[in-house]
Amino acid sequence: MNLEDISTTKSLLSIPQNIVIVPHKNPDGDAIGSCLALYIFLKEMGQNCSVISPNDYPKFLKWMPQNEAILNYEKSQSKCKQLLDDATLIFTLDFNDFSRTGTLGNELQQSKAEFIMIDHHQQPSDYAKVTYSDVSMSSTCEMVYNFILFLDGGDKITKSIATNLYTGIMTDTGSFKYRSTSSQTHRIVADLIDKGAENMEIHQQVFDTNSPSRLHLLGVALKNMVILKEFRTAYITLSQEELDANHFKKGDTEGFVNYGLTLEGIVLAVIFIENKEEGIIKMSFRSVGDFSVNEFARNHFNGGGHTNAAGGRSDESLEKTVAKFNAVLTEYKNQLSS
What we know:
Elements: H1 3-12, E1 18-22, H2 29-44, E2 48-53, E3 70-72, H3 77-86, E4 89-93, H4 104-110, E5 114-119, E6 130-133, H5 140-150, H6 159-172, H7 183-194, H8 199-207, H9 212-224, E7 226-228, E8 233-238, H10 240-245, E9 268-275, E10 280-287, H11 293-300, E11 304-305, E12 309-314, H12 318-329, H13 333-337
Parallel strand pairs: 1-2, 1-4, 2-3, 4-5, 5-6, 8-9
Antiparallel strand pairs: 7-8, 9-10, 10-12, 11-12
Helix pairs in contact: 2-5, 2-6, 5-6, 6-7, 6-8
């Protein structure tokens, strides 16, 4: 944040506000962690604050401090709409375009509140009075940590705030292994541990709570994996029938796409997940090196994200989506093999 944005933010928060904090649809650890950390911090400042999630999120995140404060827009629309109508300030965290919030985006577009965006994805939209955007950051949680320091609130980082921020940084960096993990990321994580974040317990809560059905679904996913050596690519498909047969719950496929990158020589991994209720194929892309899955997803699959991690979607069938992917892949053979 530049000095002007810091000054504007301090001015906005110097008076009582009705604040709503919003993550993207299908929020992950970084989205939930950043929203809850900011929520606790703003409440400590004496602000009237709420968190509205566009929809539900995985069970393995529902232990996080103050998780019970989050309202699910899909289940509590009337209450959420009233909060948004009354809002004077809205924080949008871990996304940079209203389209990333599903049907909630219509409410956000109509709001008369001021907006503050905190996000680390590429190509942000221009809707906020204050835009704190930095694609070099490991996570939105790292940015919220900085945001709190910009507001001279370092001494207000409690154990609950530290736990939420640690969780988001940990999940969005792949347990600190992605390229975006900087020396400063580790310094921040060290400070969060000093402030009460219990790293071993957090790892166990997020990663060591498998159900038998999730492991069975992982087995199906790995059996379905297709390896395209010519393109140094591996992809996984999961049909709605396979999800239903293994009692799929939101969050069960988290991390499945990464298995492709564990194969020697693979630089691009993709997972295609059928969602018949929404009529889409949800896609996750991961890469190593300089191949930009952000550009790949934006150009071909209505998505985007980061250079090495992005999402996308298709309105066609699973079979047609995979066929399109295979056809498009030929355009990138030189990039993938270099």
